[in-house]
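ok trying again, last paste got cut off:
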Amino acid sequence: MTPTVLATVFTSQVLVNGAISGLVYGLVGMGIVLVYRSTRVINFAVGAMGLPAAGVMALLVIEYGFAYWLALPIALVAGTAFATAMELIVVRRLFNAPRVILLIATIGIAQLALAITMALPQIDQSGASFPLAVGRRFGVGSVELSGGQFSILVIVPIVAVALGWVMTRTAFGRGVAAAADNADLARLSGVSPKTASTIVWTIAGLVSSVSLILIAGSAGGVNQVATLGPATLTRGLVVAVLAGMRSFPRAAIAGVALGVTEAVVRFNNVTDPGRFETYLFVAVIIVVYVQSRRAAGGVEDASTASYSFTPKVKPIPPEIRDRWWVRNLGRIVFCIALAAAAVAPLLTDRPTRPFLYASIACFALGALSVSIITGWSGQLSLGQMAFAGGAALFTGTLVRGITFSIGDVNVQLEAIPFIAAVAIACALSAVAAAVIGLGSLRIRGLLLGVTTFVFAYAAQQDLFHYYVFTGGMQSPIRVPRGTLFGLDLTSQRTYYWVVLGFVALTISVVARLRRRAPGRNQIAVRDNPSSASAYTLNPTRTKLAGFALSGAIAGLGGALLGVLSQNINTTEIFVVQDSLDVVAIAVIGGLGSIAGPVLGALWIKGLPAFFPGNDLVPLFASSIGLLLLLLYFPGGLVQIGYWIRDGFYAFVAKRVTTPEVERPRTVPTRRDTATHATDTDSPAVAAHDVVVSFGGVHAVDGASLSVARGEIVGLIGTNGAGKSTLLNAIGGYLPSQGSIEVLGRDVSRLAAHGRARAGLGRTFQAARLFPELTVRETIMVALEGRHRSSFIGAAVAWPTSGRDERRKSAEAMEIIHFLGLSGFADNAISELSTGTRRIVELAALVALDAKVLCLDEPTAGVAQRESEAFGPLLLAIRKELDASLLIVEHDMPMIMSLSDRIYCLEAGRVIAEGPPDEVRNNPLVVASYLGTDPRAIERSDAR
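nice, full thing came through this time. structure:
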């Protein structure tokens, strides 16, 4: 009898087959969880790392006649050794790199594993079955198991239990978890994070080897395993996400549930075999969104996921900064390169060359979209070519025309011109990218990579077959070229020049956006969302703009590539591998740069075509090239050009004797000052009964304070008393109970950027600011609080946009001169000392024109002599801004001499409040914080 549940039909055999497949998915997912728990890296090579083991196993048993149980340990050692070697050679060298970079490195490791496996003798020619596939079959009632399935049923639970026990029940497992959560604390406990990483990758290699040998036994051969990469990895990633990237038992359960669900769905839906991939994508979107709502639970550590691996450029020497050729060097190089590209088809008589050149240009656009979303926004997308494919197919639909039904009514849309179709497709790609990124906004970088990878595979297997994309046609799908403003596009050479024009225009627009506010804002949000919010930027809106821009550019590249191909075979183009290729193109060229995607596309897509008979070129143009660039040229190929440019500038500057004129320090002129509608009789800040809880523990427990207009209020207390937490609650960086008013306005329901717009300025303990921006750019970001720049205006070079940019630059320089930062204007924040960064923070508050300044330990990490100068500087800024100050500070002489009133916190509660002398002598304060030693609150030179 065949059971039926909710109109779904299945058999016992279907359920058992699904459960067995699910065990393998669970094992792959546990490998992902293992590496993530230990190193905070999502290992995209977890499945492929076992390919060498499966290849060696097949080679030994099938080709050389080894006994199965003799070949098995040799194969496992080979696979495990490969994983260990990759950790020592690649992962260890990139140990302190951002986690996103390590994730990209694992893609290169996966490609290398496949290349090594396929290079084994006879592997690619062997047609023999894998050993376990031909073993005896087992029958239990109506259920029958193959040898491979029986092995999975026995081995996977054993491996899962052993893995879970080692990682959760042993001192080693706890030490590994500690190394991932807090490397410094782990070192103090005697655990080496690097050694722990090596051991974990070794175990992951063993698990992957077991997984791939079992899959090969079930699939019938290593050749079949090589083609299972995206499908198996997709399911392993889904399992890991369902397990919260932490739980081994949940991964095992999720794997079995996924396998059974897939078996039942496929058994009942044989007409649309790819539909299940779409279901997986929807499930991942939902799970990631739910986990993003619990971001405090630690699904993603923002500090380890931040991304700043872009090419580095030295400041232009001041002696030559104003030379016209220096200001326009980028434009000059761009025009020369564009002219060379335009002439290239005329220098060859091979008819395929214009097609190749146009293909390289289209992939460069795809890589440019990666450069924006990853290099600018810090989010990793592994599905850009899925957006491109959707745009290409939809462009074909619009150019051909389409007929569809709404109920009983047939609707026919006439064909539209090529340029209009491309524009509509790009717009829809932008919307799709923004919608897909929306679920991952609260989690930085890595889980967006998972979401977009699953989306790319779902698009390849299912979405691209929808009627709206195919018009009912079978693959390959015809995409006519048509004309462009009367220009016939059938000629390959003519169409190449059209593509080149689109690429040149896109690069010009993107370069302009990067120089102006939209690009600065993207990088500010990437580097430090908290500080960006303090300068009135909305991180969510800014990231969505980056998603949309990258989606539009990917759509443009895809539409042009689809029309170039004229016949789209979705099994050969716009596949998952293409999405991984454009990531490699962006990284090899120089992630975050404008020229990098073009250089990377020439490297990866051009070299194999220009040297078709060389077996090494494809390797250096993919896995090995990607890994070498990451290891030794992290800034990409464009970094080499920057080094040459910087050296040339330095050479010329030495021969120029024109001194730089230091401008006098003048009070900056405040224009376009943000207006804050306030009640002038109300306090600057009023916080009532504020409560902040973490896991049921009250870090702030009913604290209340107020700051009068023009007043300086100090907030003191022991470490852990809740001072910074209270400041974060006032600033909107933590959810809290109670009420908070700023300048007479209730801001309790506003996010951090909304409170900044209400007049609240904020500095932070670490003073990180935006490491990749210059001092001038950082202050210009803060100036956005006074006058918001237009994204569209910057993109189309609207005259008012240019005037606004020049005005912001001039205002930034006025503030820089006022605070004595002239020598650092074009230095990156990451190059500055802590004391200088503190001054830049204050300069940004001047630019913001904030009326309430919440300063969190403004002298932390600053030398004593510099900290003593901060008091007069804060007084000068208060006078300049007519502002009120709320200061958390451990420098007792400074805070006591500077403040009009003092609050003292203990265990999240206010235990004393009043003038400095009164609080200093309060018995509760003395007992809790100051103690009886007068040196704690006075220095001999404090007065």
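cool. Residues 239 and 868 are 55 Å apart (CA to CA). The chain has a mean pLDDT of 82.
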